[in-house]
Every structure is written in structure tokens, then in C-alpha cells.
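Quick entry between incubations.
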Amino acid sequence: MEGKEFTATSFYRFLDDKKLMGSQCKKCEALFLPPRPFCGQCLGDEMAWFQFSGRGRLVSYSVVRVGTTSYEEKGYSRDNPYCWGVVELDEGPRISALLLDADVARPDAITIGQPLEVVFPDKGEAEGERSPVTFRLR
Amino acid sequence: MAKRAKKLARGVAVVGAGMSHFGAFREKDSRDLFVEAFQATLETVPRGIDPKDIEAIYVGNLSGDCFEGQAHIAPLMAEWVGLNPRPATRTEDACASSGVALREGIIAIASGLYDVVLVSGVEVMNKLTTAMVTDTLAAAADAIYEVPVGATFPSLYAQIATAHMAKYGTTEEQLMKIGIKNHANGALNHKAHFNISIRDIMSSRVAKAKERGQPIPSWTDEMEFLKDPIANPIVAWPMKLFDCSPITDGAACAILVAEEIAKNFTDTPIHIIGTGQASDAQALHGREDMTSLKAAKLAAEQAYEMAGVTPGDIQLAEVHDCFTIAEVLATEDLGFFKPGDGPRAAEEGRTARDGEKPVNTSGGLKAKGHPVGATGVGQVVEVWEQMSGHAGPRQIPGVNLALTHNVGASGSTVTVHIFERR
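Done. Structure below.
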């Protein structure tokens, strides 16, 4: 693990291995999710990998009826919308995530602050692609 | 390092500004709209200008590359308006591209290198399908960590809206009122993409239904129309169609000169007394706060400090309402209203043309239109017209101090400028 570079490629490979990994500055202990090779806080350049618990709460969200081409190709549409949001991890940092189990028919019933947990869906045929960070309500 | 008050090494003024019509023009390319904006601009200079006096050109453009298959757009625009071989530079900071072009032009004159500069912006977006426009714009977010979870621009601003709603109790109805206000202003701007009020859009739909013998919709006012999910469908909840600025083609130009030669062009130059620009994390998840744009607050702070004025002094503002919630944030981040008070202020009409703080008298991005790379300089055109008394039916009398606020993407670039008529 220590040998991996602090890149998006490493982040998504860890996600495939069912791990939500960020980096931690060895000098000032600041946490970064997604991982960074360079500390924006103290300008330190020595990082260590840090595994997040995957538990957090919802900061913001949207139910998307007109999606990106790649989501439309996955079968999402005006009649089959998806939900994504910003999640604040228990450890502090925030990350954008696709949200499963949200009631997309009643978006006003989704509550900010509600607890979430990371999930690692099977990739199936999408092997090799970067699969999105995914959370679900808990 | 000691903090030093930032100021321009010499003064800069606007002596003319103009724009093409904004709209969806299937038969026009960026060079055509640029020529239209340039010609309109020359006509606005009260004592006239010889284009040969222009020494450099800055062009804001988000993605001619994807929208038109045309990169390297600055020398091309210069060529089409006869400005080769002058240095021509493209600026790209998403939807703040021409706000940044404006600032670079100011800095170039203040440095003493040039006396006369053309700042401009252009974007032609309607050559692509809506789906491809959505993808092209999404590239201005974080392509590695936001786009893969399904982020689109409406859904990025929807995140800001849901956070603002949870924190301050902001409602969908309050946001709808901002769209109604900006369309009412756009109805008075003959160059606007939507030169029509929401009430008139509603009436024309009723008339069309009658004509075709279809069931007649029962809307009694604009709010009923906007609450009808057929008339105003959800794009990315809580952002609906009428919360979103349109996909627009257009160009805008302004001529900047060194203050000491401004009287050669006009008796009433508009002095640029404050400029500010800041950056922030590209992804929303990297920001400290979801209910405010930190870069907007910092850019505004710089501009106010340089100008020596306060938010209360500003008499008119053109702000970046790419979505209705963005206008709320703008009026709060610029210090016009306290955090959380923006929606109520809009609802009470305080930002209407006859309110204490007219915002987006041009129609804003919502109704005037949002040709992304041209928007920042397009805002200067409204300020110029208002301050020189040429705003026609939407004229606000006696504007001596005005402000423009231009946002790139979901807030990772913001520019703020303050203009004075003396």
C-alpha cells in the first residue's frame, strides 16, 4: 500500500478493492479525500495512505433528470433519475458520491444530515472503467 | 510579507461597450457574432474611435474547441475585425472567461504597456445537442471526482440550493421569483435571448393550446405556471427549467483606455475603480461552505477595498445568475444582504428595477442569455448602457456606482469589478 502513488488511478484501484482511501500528511496530520501527494495546509510532501471508515452524513444532494451522456447510456433518464450528493465523512473530509436508495420520486423528503455509508457495487461489464464513489442511506 | 493595499498603477476607463444579439443562431459562427459585437461597440464610443488605435485584444472563450471544433480563437477573432497583427490572447476560466479577459485588459493598461485595449468574449453553443453541451460544460467541474458521480451544472448548483434550503429555509417559490424578475427585465432588452416575460410565455402557451384545440391550461398567474411540472420540468431537483439560464450564442466587447486619454473618446468615461479575482477548490466537496462562494467574497473584498466603497454604495449590479440560486448567493456574497436573507430580499422586490438594489436589469444570464465565454463582458455592456443613459425602457436614473460579478463553474473562479461615473 505504501508503495502506491497518491493519484486518482490509485484511488479508483483501491475502490475496486472495496477500500475508500485518502492520504494523510505525515507532518501536520491533515487528511485528504481524494488523496493528494502534496499537503495544501503545511506544504509538506510526505504522505501516508489513510483508510476511511466509509461512514458519514449528507451535506447536499440533487435528483438529476437530465444527466450526463454517460449516465444516460447507463439507462438513467427523465423517468429514471439518479441522485448524487456531497458526503461528509466521520473523519472530516467531504467527497461527491452517487447515492443509492434515495427516494428520487420525493426529493424533498431526502434529509440533509442523514447518515450514509459507502458501498462497493460489483462492476460487472464496466471492468477497467473508473466506477463512481457510491454511498447509501443507513 | 507585509500586506500592501492593492491598487492599479494608473487608472483605466471604459469608453465604449456593445454586444451582438444573444440567442440561438443556427446559421452563425463565433466570428459572425464577434463582428456584430465589435461593430456595435465602435458605435457606442461618443467621439468615435479609429480601430487602428486598439493595441491588444483579449478574448474570453470557454470551449470553442468542443462547441465549434475551433481552438485558438483569439487571433481568429482579431483577424475578422481587422486587428491582426496585434497581440490576441484567449482567456479561459469557464463561465468567468471574459470577466478574466476584462481584468487582464485592465492590468495590461495599468502596467503602462498599452493605452487602448479591446476586451471581449464569445461563445457559440447551439451547434451541439443539449446532451453534448451538458458534457462540455461539465468538463469545467472536477472531471475525475465530480463528473463520474453524475455531476452536471444544474445538479452542481442544485447541491448549493439544497444546502441553502436546509440552512436558511429557502424555498423553491422564492427562487422562482428571481426568474420572474429577470425575465421581466429581459423583456425590456431587445438583444436578450428571452426578450419576453414569464407571464407572456404563459399567455402564448395558452393561446397555442386554444389554436390547436388542446385542453386549455388553468394557470392563473406565473407562479402557477412555474409550479406546473409539465410547463416547468425538473432538470436537477430543485432546479427546474426556469431556474436555469439558457444555452446561448453571443459575443460582447468593451474598449478600455488609460484614464489620462479617456477624454479623447468621451466626456463621460466610466472609470474602473475596483477589480478583484479569487479561486477556490474546483469540486464542491473541497469547499469550506456550500451556501456561499468564498472566491466571490474574496474577489468582492479586493474590489471594494481598491475602490474605497462599501456594498451599500453600489447602485446597480449585474451578477452571475446562471441558476436562480446563484443570484441568491451573489447578493449575499457581495454583502448586499446578510447570509440567508437573499431569497426574502428578492421576494420583497428589493432587487427589482424599482427596488433599492437593482440586480440584473439586463435580464441577467437567465433572460439575457448565457453564451458562457461572453458573459463577463456582456455584464459590462449593461453597466455601460445604464451609466451612459442608453438603457432605454429599463434605464435606472442616476447610476454613478455599479458592480459586475462573474463566476466560473460552480465558484472556483470569481471576478468582481466596480465602475464609477464621475
